[in-house]
Amino acid sequence: MRRCAKFGPLTALATGLAIIAANTIAPSAATAQPDAASSRLPEIFPAPVSMTLGARSFALGEAVELVAAPGTEAGTLTLLRQILTSAGVETITTAKTPSARPDVTQILVGLASAPQIRATLGRSGTVVDDHAEGYTIAIVPAGRAGKVTLAGHDGDGLFHAVQTFRQLVQRQRLPALVVQDHPAMPIRGTIEGFYGKPWSMAERSKHLDFLATVKANTYVYSPKDDPFARDRWREAYPAATLQSLAALVATARRNHVDFVYAVSPGPSVCFSDPADAQALERKFAALRTIGVHSFYVALDDIEYKKWNCARDQTAFGASGAEAAGVAQARLLNAVQAHLIATDPASRPLIMVPTEYYDAKETPYKAALRKTLDPRVVVQWTGTDVVPPAISIPDARTATKAFGRKTLLWDNYPVNDYAQTTGRLLLAPYARREAGLSGELTGILSNPMNQEAPSRVAVTGVAAFAWNDTGYDAERTLHFAARELAGGDARAADALLTFFDTQHMAPTFGSQPWQEQAPRLKATLDAVREAIASGDQTARHKAIATLTTQADALTNAPDAIRAGVVDPSFAQQARPWLDAMQLWGRALQLTAAGLDAAESGNTAASRYFTDAGTLAAQAAAVQSIPGATRFDGPIKIADGVLDRFVKDAPSLIAQ
């Protein structure tokens, strides 16, 4: 996209838990008593469709018995073993059928269609989730341990069940619990479609690992500067590049993520030339040899009212929007037909149209609607290239315009356009209406040039696409912080402080769709109010609160650098963390100046002067050269923090 010019049933489940509890071996007195953990519903992200809590819990223990039903994928079992080991399990014994040992937790894993799984869940009265990618988890205290059943409707669902189990075992005890879950939208993930420095293959691999943890299932490879996908799209990839892509495809497969290969032929394609259609087919055939079965043709950011070849003039008439829509549809229809004929495993072709934003009726959209094969998936960015909000009526209008439900290309948190200069976009994913799952085929987020910081917003995108009606933006943001911090509470708090300084979400216009630093602004506004109209006690309290806030800003960068699980987050956010620390020190001096002024101390002016010097240094910190499309000064809570530091000397007469 160009961003430079314009800048059920709960009763049955509860009954099932009660049946199992009634038929288990009587636990010891120490384990029979209800505990605090058993009365608390765990938080799982994305939010499951249904969770039913029982009254007891148990510790996982140092040894477990693992029973895998026939047909369970080896990769899913490997992941489960890794999760158990990370949770402190020292001994994992495999068995074909569960034993009768009351002192060892038994984990049964497999497809819901497997007789063992079906029988176990049936005995407990647990209803199986039978949606695509759905899963069911039943956790039942039994004796001095427990029984855990992880059942997937399909292989993807079972993998998702294991990812949910990963979150559950982070608790000290597992509660009696039944989870039924499945995604609201069939397509969920990211499209690497930004301008500027692309991700490295290592960053892409990490991103695929991350997508698995949030139950995303799609990654579109569409870097703008891959010459063999855009300017030189007719040419074959060098062997070394194809080998690197093959490794990436394997990583995606291991993570149950659909790797979609995108080509952008628009700047030079001749729509009516069979040779160009064959060139596309050859390109896709080469990718098919490394395991790609999903393809994408990008026709965004091109001149579509002028033909690239005289042949198209003959075939489609005078150039123009309507003729372009017909020409594009004819080429895409041929590609779609060829994919089906040559690859039974192929998924529907995806395309992004030249008119990819808004849903106003136009000759171009009408031509696509009437001519394009209904199997082809169409992407749409919302009411604008960077929309401030997306509603159900917006999506319905797009469905009408394109003749099918669209796949949302959400340009958040992408930071490759001028209004994002100096920013990381770390506000929660918000202002997308609950219920959009009924009007969209899915959501793909266009992330930032910085892969690790992108995970904050993408966690929200994936959670919304999984369960839009159960999505909570703020709670999901907190989850993203905990995940980045690996459970380190100090680092997670520091990350949330940092996120607040990067809360601004710009549009192409002058008004952002998410405001800057709302938490910090509330604190600073309260200080202003207390100084202006509060009594002496209120003023002292407000200045003390300001000092605490300044310390938090100053200390957060070091806590983040020491606490994040993936060091690449701190590396990619380095100038922002450096600037934040300087701003924190400037605010510390500002607080000291206000305290001195309140006490009539003549040192106040020196504190304010030193604060201004540090603020100037902070404002001069530059982004990493070449890391984003537009280099420039780093923004930290701009319009909030800088304004307060500037105004502070005038709040109390010196």
What is the count of β-strands?
15
- How are the strands of the largest sheet arranged? 8-9-10-11-12-13-14-15
The parts where pLDDT drops under 50 for at least 5 residues are 2-38
Largest sheet: 8 strands, parallel, barrel
Distance between the termini: 53 Å
Do you know the CATH topology of the largest domain? Answer: TIM Barrel
Q: Helical stretch count? A: 21
What is the CATH architecture descriptor of the largest domain? Alpha-Beta Barrel
Please name the fourth-level CATH homologous superfamily of the largest domain: Glycosidases
Report the CATH C-level class of the largest domain.
Answer: Alpha Beta
The average pLDDT is 93
Helix content: 40-55%
Overall body shape: globular
Q: Write down the Rg.
A: 28 Å
Number of domains: 3
Produce the secondary structure layout.
Layout: H1 10-23, H2 29-32, E1 50-58, E2 63-68, H3 74-86, E3 91-95, E4 105-111, H4 115-124, E5 135-142, E6 145-152, H5 155-168, E7 174-181, E8 187-192, H6 201-213, E9 218-221, H7 239-254, E10 258-263, H8 274-288, E11 294-298, H9 310-316, H10 321-342, E12 350-352, H11 363-371, E13 377-380, H12 392-402, E14 406-410, E15 440-445, H13 451-466, H14 473-485, H15 489-501, H16 518-533, H17 536-563, H18 567-572, H19 574-599, H20 604-619, H21 641-647
Parallel strand pairs: 2-3, 2-4, 4-6, 8-9, 8-15, 9-10, 10-11, 11-12, 12-13, 13-14, 14-15
Antiparallel strand pairs: 1-7, 5-6, 5-7
Helix pairs in contact: 3-5, 6-7, 6-13, 10-11, 13-14, 14-15, 15-17, 16-17, 17-19, 19-20
